[in-house]
Amino acid sequence: QVQLVESGGGLVQAGDSLRLSCAASGRIFTTYAAAWFRQAPGKEREFVAAISWTGSEAYADSVKGRLTISRDNAKNTVYLQMNSLKPEDTAVYYCAARKYTVVFTTQYDYWGQGTQVTVSS
Question: Is the dihedral of CA 98, 100, 90, 10 positive or negative?
C-alpha cells in the first residue's frame, strides 16, 4: 500500500522551467520503479519518463533532453525537472510506482492524483 502525491505544477510561459515532485508514503520499497505520465484533454495518458531502483532513466522522445527524472530514496520522493517547456507539454502530470522493473505502459500499481502543468506561448 503506497500513496503518491504530486506537487509543483502551475502556469508558466514557454521556455520556463518547473520541477514536479512526487512524495510517497505507506509501505515503501527502495526497489520500486517510478515513472511520470501525462494526459492532455481529449488524449490518452502517455509515458513521459521512468527511473529504475538502480537509477537508470528512460524518456519519451518528445521530452528527451528537456525533462529529467530523478529520485531521492532517503526522502521517498521522485522528481521531474522540466526545462524549456513548450505549450505541447501542457497536461496533467501523474507519478506512478510499481515493483520492481520499469515499464513504458500504464501498468503501474500506484498512482498519484495528478498535478496540472500549463505552458502558455
Answer: positive
Q: What is the pLDDT of residues 43-102, one digit of tens each?
A: 999 999 999 999 999 999 999 999 999 999 899 999 999 999 999 999 999 999 999 999
Cα–Cα distance list, 47 to 29, 36, 38, 79 (Å): 22, 7, 7, 15
Radius of gyration of the chain (CA): 13
**Helix, strand, coil: what percent of the chain each, to 5?**
5, 55, 40
Decide: 91 and 107 in contact? Cβ < 8 Å: no
**Beta carbons within 10 angstroms of residue 73's beta carbon:** 15
